[in-house]
């Protein structure tokens, strides 16, 4: 152990300490996330963890862009008002990018496309869109599917009942208070896959108005660029495709 | 968002307000009927009747109203096979809820009438129920009335819970508007103002009645 | 004629009436006197069933009050009661207080009942207060209306439970005047009272009650002037 050796070791240790300190000063940016927990396969909770296509994408982006995600569970209709009020920095569900919404909030790049689909109980005598005449269908408050239903209401001859969340909608359909519902095609596909040989629902007609889905952010948020940068990276390195495959939505 | 558009909200909100008021009235009338029966049971000398009335009151006051609404709307059809539109289920739940509170109001109103009134009526030769009808009830009614109007404004606010099962009362009417056009704060403010107007009107009636009672 | 035979009454474990006998002849006025707790009010209330005797007999006219077959409401129509606290129906005017029973129970028409009621109000000196609500009347006025209300049922007998005890002194006289008039009209009456002077003047007999029985009963001059029992003497010496 001579003095030069000791000095070198100390210098190395010091510089590493300084470098480590410098890295620690780039503390992660805290981002509060309004997250919907009833929208599989895009945004839901499993084993106490927030997961799904949207959340896995976001969690990957957070790692790459040094973000710390702080989740606040919310119901879908509350997301956009919460963004407007500045209570959350970002909204995660499977949010359809529509012109009306773009006026109120900003969106990240879209990461998937889905549309609205009509769903009826498996034993219902509704089998085609024409059978819907005179019937009542449920749609989720504030959803793009609701907008679709309202615009087609006259053409399809339906009455639209607005309900706060998808679970209540399904119960209303099961107890006969509504005849059918209109909801996201991705969720419906997921449900049918899970039900396998014993489906409780059937799809009526085709997917209506396929639209991109993205993350929601407050208007003028500087996070949009950050998120988009991260998404571009995982699109490029193939992780995006892997997530889609994992959830069988490709 | 142009300042013109908020006027467009008014008809929709007023439709919701109309349903709010109708549900409140029906619940108050139904609740009063239930309350009268329960109050009689509570005052009766039968321990069985008292017990039943108190059990009902305990259940209704012990569970959150929201839970009761969900139970009536979802569980009841599943158990009994009886189908009910949401507005019927919701009104029924609120009626049952109001009934428990009305029972207390009615019971305490009746018991606030001096015993001597019943004795005087009986001593003339009226039967028990005759005396109740001719002597006790007319006096108890004026004591109960301010409390009943108070219950009206409580029930009025409780109807907003029906939005959870999709009934388009005032709160839901507002939600439908601002989740479509994102004019959240303005619409909520308008909803609040309309509730306040209805409440203030009911309060006016209550104050007028209270002056009549103490006169 | 009303009578009580061997009447017993307990409240829980407390025996308040320990075998009381009393027969009141038609047109007779009997005053019950005694200390608080002697049972005089309880005994009075046994006559119209506001207290139900546990044992013994109560006969009103020829109707046994305590027999299961007896319709007590019907019997009560034949006996009027005047309460210490007046108990006027607060939601009805003086006139309506008086006509309620006659219209509903004696099946008089409204017009008939009101005519009779106005006569009664005149009798008690309140003809000009027919439309007044009870809360607007003084205690003495309320009690006079109460007496008219009881008389409106045309009873065979009247019971008075300390009719002036709740009155301010200056109003006692107007009520006693009315009661005197009713007595002079030949009404059978039992009166519980502390107004000894009045009792002496108006009673045919005075009954002194003590500890749940009638200790001494007799004409007023005898009971007040020359009481036989020691207890009676003690009581009177405290009062007079």
List key phrases describing it:
B: mainly alpha, 0% strand, flat, C: 240 residues, alpha/beta, four-stranded antiparallel β-sheet
Characterization of the model:
The complex is a heterotrimer of chains A (250), B (215) and C (240). Chain A has 9 helices and 12 strands. With 250 residues, chain A is of the alpha/beta class. Chain A is elongated, with a radius of gyration of 23 Å. Chain B contains 8 helices and no strands. The mean pLDDT of chain B is 91. Chain C is globular, with a radius of gyration of 18 Å. The mean pLDDT of chain C is 95. The interface between A and B is medium-sized, with 25 and 22 residues.
Largest interface: A-B, 25 and 22 residues
Counting helices, strands and paired strands, the structural category of chain C is alpha/beta
**pLDDT < 50 runs, ≥5 residues of chain B:** none
The neighbouring-strand order within the major sheet of chain C is 6-7-8-3-9-10
- According to DSSP, the number of beta strands of chain B is 0
Radius of gyration of chain C: 18 Å
Mean pLDDT of chain B: 91
Major sheet description of chain B: none
Layout of helices and strands, plus pairs?
The complex is a heterotrimer of chains A (about 250), B (about 220) and C (about 240).
Chain A: H1 3-25, E1 29-36, E2 38-39, E3 43-46, E4 49-51, H2 53-65, E5 67-74, H3 76-84, E6 90-96, H4 99-104, E7 105-107, E8 112-121, E9 136-140, H5 144-156, E10 159-163, H6 166-174, E11 180-184, H7 185-195, E12 201-218, H8 223-236, H9 239-246
Helix pairs in contact in A: 2-8
Chain B: H1 5-43, H2 47-62, H3 65-80, H4 86-111, H5 115-124, H6 128-158, H7 170-181, H8 184-214
Helix pairs in contact in B: 1-2, 1-4, 1-6, 1-7, 1-8, 2-4, 3-4, 4-6, 5-6, 6-8, 7-8
Chain C: E1 2-11, E2 14-24, E3 29-34, H1 40-46, E4 55-60, E5 63-64, H2 72-76, E6 79-82, H3 94-104, H4 110-123, H5 139-152, E7 157-161, H6 169-184, E8 188-192, H7 196-202, E9 205-210, E10 213-218, H8 220-225, H9 230-239
Parallel strand pairs in C: 3-8, 3-9, 6-7, 7-8
Antiparallel strand pairs in C: 1-2, 1-4, 4-5, 9-10
């Amino acid at each position: 152990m001579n003095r030069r050796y000791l000095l070198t070791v100390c210098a190395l240790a010091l510089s590493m300490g300084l470098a480590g300190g410098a890295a620690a000063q780039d503390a992660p940016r805290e981002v509060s996330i309004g997250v919907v927990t009833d929208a599989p396969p895009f945004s839901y909770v499993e084993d106490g963890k927030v997961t799904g296509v949207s959340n896995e994408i976001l969690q990957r982006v957070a790692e790459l862009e040094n973000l710390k995600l702080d989740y606040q569970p919310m119901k879908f209709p509350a997301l956009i008002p919460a963004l407007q009020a500045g209570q959350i920095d970002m909204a995660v569900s499977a949010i359809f990018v529509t012109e009306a919404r773009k006026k109120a909030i900003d969106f990240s790049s879209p990461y998937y496309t889905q549309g609205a689909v009509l769903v009826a109980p498996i034993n219902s005598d509704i089998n085609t869109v024409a059978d819907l005449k005179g019937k009542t269908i449920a749609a989720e408050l504030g959803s793009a599917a609701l907008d679709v239903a309202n615009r087609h209401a006259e053409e399809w001859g339906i009455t639209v009942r607005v309900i706060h969340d998808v679970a209540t909608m399904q119960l209303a359909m099961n107890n006969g208070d509504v005849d059918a519902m209109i909801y996201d095609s991705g969720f419906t596909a997921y449900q049918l896959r899970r039900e396998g040989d014993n489906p409780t629902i059937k799809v009526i007609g085709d997917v209506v108005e396929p639209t991109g889905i993205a993350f929601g952010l407050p208007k003028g948020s500087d996070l949009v660029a950050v998120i988009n940068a991260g998404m571009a990276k995982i699109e490029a390195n193939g992780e995006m495709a892997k997530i889609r495959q994992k959830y069988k939505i490709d | 968002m142009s300042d013109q558009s908020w006027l467009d909200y008014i008809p929709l909100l007023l439709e919701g307000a109309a349903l709010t008021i109708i549900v409140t009235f029906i619940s108050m009338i139904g609740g009063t009927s239930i309350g009268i029966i329960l109050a009689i049971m509570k005052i009766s000398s039968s321990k069985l009747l008292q017990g039943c009335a108190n059990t009902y009151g305990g259940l209704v006051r012990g569970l959150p109203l929201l839970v009761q609404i969900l139970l009536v709307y979802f569980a009841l059809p599943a158990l009994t096979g009886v189908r009910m539109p949401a507005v019927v289920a919701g009104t029924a739940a609120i009626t049952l809820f109001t009934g428990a509170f009305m029972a207390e109001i009615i019971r305490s109103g009746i018991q606030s009438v001096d015993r001597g009134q019943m004795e005087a009526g009986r001593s003339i030769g009226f039967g028990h129920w005759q005396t109740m009808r001719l002597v006790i009830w007319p006096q108890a009614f004026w004591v109960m009335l301010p409390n009943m109007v108070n219950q009206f404004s409580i029930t009025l606010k409780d109807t907003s819970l029906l939005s959870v099962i999709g009934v388009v009362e005032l709160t839901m009417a507002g939600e439908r508007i601002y989740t479509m056009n994102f004019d959240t704060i303005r619409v909520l403010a308008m909803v609040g103002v309309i509730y306040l107007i209805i409440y203030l009107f009911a309060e006016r009636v209550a104050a007028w009645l209270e002056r009549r009672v103490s006169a | 004629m009303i009578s009580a035979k061997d009447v017993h009454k307990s409240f829980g474990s407390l025996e308040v009436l320990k075998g009381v006998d009393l027969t009141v002849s038609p047109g007779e006025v009997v005053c019950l006197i005694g200390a608080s707790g002697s049972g005089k009010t309880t005994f009075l209330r046994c006559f119209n069933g506001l207290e139900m005797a546990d044992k013994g007999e109560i006969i009103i006219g020829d109707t046994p009050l305590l027999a299961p077959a007896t319709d007590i409401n019907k019997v009560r129509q034949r006996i009027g009661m005047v309460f210490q606290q007046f108990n006027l129906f607060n939601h009805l005017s003086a006139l309506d207080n008086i006509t309620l029973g006659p219209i509903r129970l004696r099946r008089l028409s409204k017009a008939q009942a009101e005519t009779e009621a106005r006569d009664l109000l005149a009798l008690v000196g309140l003809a000009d207060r027919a439309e007044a609500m009870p809360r607007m009347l003084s205690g003495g006025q309320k009690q006079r209306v109460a007496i008219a209300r009881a008389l409106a049922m045309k009873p065979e007998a009247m019971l008075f439970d300390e009719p002036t005890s709740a009155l301010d002194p200056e109003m006692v006289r107007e009520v006693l005047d009315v009661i005197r008039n009713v007595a002079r009209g030949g009404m059978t009456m039992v009166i519980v009272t502390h107004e000894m002077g009045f009792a002496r003047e108006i009673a045919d007999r005075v009954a002194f009650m003590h500890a749940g029985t009638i200790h001494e009963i007799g004409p007023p001059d005898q009971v007040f002037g020359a009481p036989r029992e020691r207890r009676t003497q003690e009581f009177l010496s405290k009062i007079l």
